[in-house]
Description:
Layout: H1 4-7, E1 12-21, E2 25-34, E3 39-44, H2 52-58, H3 62-77, E4 85-88, E5 104-110, H4 117-122, E6 124-127, E7 132-135, E8 145-147, E9 154-156, E10 179-184, E11 187-192, E12 195-196, E13 202-203, H5 205-215, H6 223-238
Parallel strand pairs: 1-4, 4-5
Antiparallel strand pairs: 1-2, 2-3, 5-11, 6-7, 8-9, 10-11, 12-13
Amino acid sequence: xxxxxxxxxxxxxxxxxxxxxxxxxxxxxxxxxxxxxxxxxxxxxxxxxxxxxxxxxxxxxxxxxxxxxxxxxxxxxxxxxxxxxxxxxxxxxxxxxxxxxxxxxxxxxxxxxxxxxxxxxxxxxxxxxxxxxxxxxxxxxxxxxxxxxxxxxxxxxxxxxxxxxxxxxxxxxxxxxxxxxxxxxxxxxxxxxxxxxxxxxxxxxxxxxxxxxxxxxxxxxxxxxxxxxxxxxxxxxxx
Length: 239
């Protein structure tokens, strides 16, 4: 028998990401799933490109502005659904903070996986100024793209996940200590430790964690990001 308090728990989970970079255009995607992993909503943006004045004025905070303040708010604002949480693989989305009316959490690599040396080669970027290849994870904002080491050209790739906040590049305006990492389902997540809902009620880390347990019986928290990537590509072809 379902307890009365369980009936009140939100029964939808949001997945929010952005692909590309400010030079070629950042495309946002937002997928809403129910408890069994079926889609109930999908929204995406046209490529968002900052103008030159914004590039100059925002500086290092530009990607966070585009992802968190423009894309995230626009996409989530289209939905009237109540979410248990909204998950992202892009740390720039965390700049949206509590403005999304749902706890915003970060999805990391699978709990038992480590970054394979072969994967490091996939993230090699071409340093044209130095004339050599520098093996390093993608820049923040490039999580969904890879580079051809010879030409420097970008191509679409499967969604990228960081191992932990310790290996995530700093995101201006985001304090990673406000999230706490935990193994959840098949992956690691970082859940907010301090969240208040739209009514001002404090929602604890443990409550958010309990909400998510209901979903991860049926949903792999990393898999929906691939659905978003493919759906965005289809939308761009037909658009």
